[in-house]
Amino acid sequence: MNQSIERVRAVISGQMPDRTPLFDLLRNSAVIRHFTGVELTVENGAELVYKAYAPAIDATRPTVKHPAREETVTLPDGRRQHVRRWTAWTERRHYADSAAYACDVRRRLAAFDPTWTAAGHSALDATLAAFAADRRRLGEVFYVPDIPGPFLMGLYGEVGLEHFSYYLADCPDAITGLLEMHTAYAESWYHHLPANHGIEAGFLGDDIAFKSGPLFSPAWMRKHYFPRLGRAVAAAHARGIKVLFHSDGNLNPILDDLVAAGIDGLNPIEVLAGMDVGDIHRRHLRLFLAGGIDVSQLLPFGTPGQVREAVRKAIDAAEGRLLVGSSTELNEEVPLANFLALRDAALEG
């Protein structure tokens, strides 16, 4: 769509766009077929998915995926990875007890060298080249690539939340040591970005909440997580990068902490977890928001009229500070008619 990138730039810089931009991940075969005129397959997916973005939406975030063959593969560390059409997940690491976990973490921390090396520089160059390739293939679409942070989600995701909770109680220094390692790496990564890095806004994903509230004690997060998040955000800002923070769930009890850490935008605004575009906008006028349209019930099961109403309400409530889209990704369960209703409502707004 013409002027998509400038439209998104207006929102993230606090200006009023000519209309509300559309922000989403396209993982929906019917939508991709509608905007390309071609049936999506595993064989043509690597090319076809990219072609669907520019005529459909204005902005996206990682990862632009194409459908994969369903299979289970064994990774070098022995864990199995299960690949499905649009997603993949890896089996968790298992430890005999907290002492074994702490021993493995100590080994990892001892092996970590914060010194920036030629290998680190090569990896950074490859990452930036991949970002640039995505931007070229997307065309007139504003791309918000992954950027590093404390990565709390990676720590509990590696072992599962239940085991992680025991480790947090039994060997808390191991957890904070890993958070510090990730944060130090993030700071170094931002510091070594070249002047022409090309990242206007980055996607810092770290799921830290259930539908009912934060995954961890807000007191613990205020001591150990938010200061480190703030360091990563400050390092990004020093390189001219705005930070779009992503977490599912109900962030209301810790929203002020996220804003105090310096984030510029918030995604995905999970409506059925109690997140409300208008309420967030009134609390924090400087934040830009991305998402805000429920994809767990409304988009898959509602009517086009209900979708239009929700989109118009969100646009009005945000007063120009919204990149409107699904509250995670446009998955296969969303009927084409409902996405078109979402899109049409934004185009009219």
Produce the secondary structure layout.
Layout (H helix, E strand, L loop, with lengths): L3 H9 L16 H8 L8 H12 L2 E2 L10 E4 L5 E4 L4 E3 L7 H14 L6 H21 L3 E2 L8 H8 L1 H10 L1 H20 L9 E5 L12 H7 L1 H13 L3 E5 L8 H6 L4 E3 L9 H7 L4 E6 L4 H4 L2 H15 L3 E5 L9 H13 L1
Parallel strand pairs: 1-5, 6-7, 7-8, 8-9, 9-10
Antiparallel strand pairs: 2-3, 3-4
Helix pairs in contact: 2-3, 4-8, 6-7, 7-8, 8-10, 12-14, 14-15
Offer a quick outline of the entry.
The protein has 349 residues and is an alpha/beta fold. It is built from 15 helices and ten strands. The protein has helices at 4-12, 29-36, 45-56, 98-111, 118-138, 152-159, 161-170, 172-191, 218-224, 226-238, 255-260, 277-283, 298-301, 304-318, 336-348; strands at 59-60, 71-74, 80-83, 88-90, 142-143, 201-205, 242-246, 265-267, 288-293, 322-326.
User: What spatial form do the alpha-carbon principal axes imply?
Assistant: globular
Instruction: Characterize the main sheet.
Output: 5 strands, parallel
Query: How large is the radius of gyration?
Result: 20 Å
Number of helices: 15
| Count of DSSP strands | 10
**Overall helicity:** 40-55%
Describe what you observe in this structure:
This protein has 349 residues and is α/β, with parallel strands linked by helices. The protein has a single domain, classed as TIM Barrel, CATH 3.20.20. The protein is built from 15 helices and ten strands. It has helices spanning 4-12, 29-36, 45-56, 98-111, 118-138, 152-159, 161-170, 172-191, 218-224, 226-238, 255-260, 277-283, 298-301, 304-318, 336-348; strands spanning 59-60, 71-74, 80-83, 88-90, 142-143, 201-205, 242-246, 265-267, 288-293, 322-326. Strand 3 (80-83) and strand 4 form a beta hairpin.
